[in-house]
Amino acid sequence: MEVELHNTTKKLCVIGDPVLHSKSPAIQNAMIAALGLDYIYLCQPVPRGEAGRWLDCAAYAGYAGFNATMPHKEELVPLMDELDPMARQCHAVNTVCIKDGKYYGYNTDGVGCLRALEDELGFDTAGKQVVLLGSGGAAKAVAAALAGTGARVTVCNRTVEKAQILCQMDPALLTPAGLETDILCKLCENADLLVNCTSLGMAGAAAGDFADLSFLEHLPAGAAVFDAIYAPPETALLRRARELRHPAMNGLGMLVWQAVLALKHFTGEDFDEQKAKAAAMKGLEQAGAI
User: Is the pLDDT of residue 1 over 60?
Assistant: First the structure.
């Protein structure tokens, strides 16, 4: 992977705290090189609570835009001049474009999930019954995107009150529930798709893993399973789902597709998305990330 630098090269980056572990530079620079775009993508640590100061710095330094990860996604929302409908609905921004001194906020996480499901599993979420585990930032974006396709989503969380708050985004299509095994078993009986947006099963996560995966045995034949985790590449949840012959995928595709969509916002270019995706995967491989 080689990115050429010119006096005209536009700067992009990812901000977060922490952020030096981010895979975004490997993904974005690989796509930029493959597509012949005059950009470079960097990594910029920005402490919690300093997103406003960063906006001033980014504009002054001539950045064309940036991605945001934790803990800045919600902090950026009131600082934007304009928000796209998805960012407004899930109250989180992961992509910011800077144009003519104004800040435009987008959220590509949820749509990235839909594109990954479509691309890898051929799964169309329109009108489907979905069981979504978790109520954090990723769950919020995925729930909003699913509801946007008309899917009926039950949001399951250990603290039901948090699920209830999330479901206020679209009460007609989002329903809160607990995360107890008996509840999941009952919900899975009619599910077309199970989505895990908790940290259960993530490498190094303090939350540990699922104590009981018996709810997977209640999924109908052909129901799909998506785990937003990509490290490790196969969680216990995915392994068990595959043993039960369910179509299953991890979160790497979502990571890549949200980046592809972010790059389209940054550049305004109508480039070949599949070419960009292939380059992103190669970039991750070369960086030893997969």
Answer: no
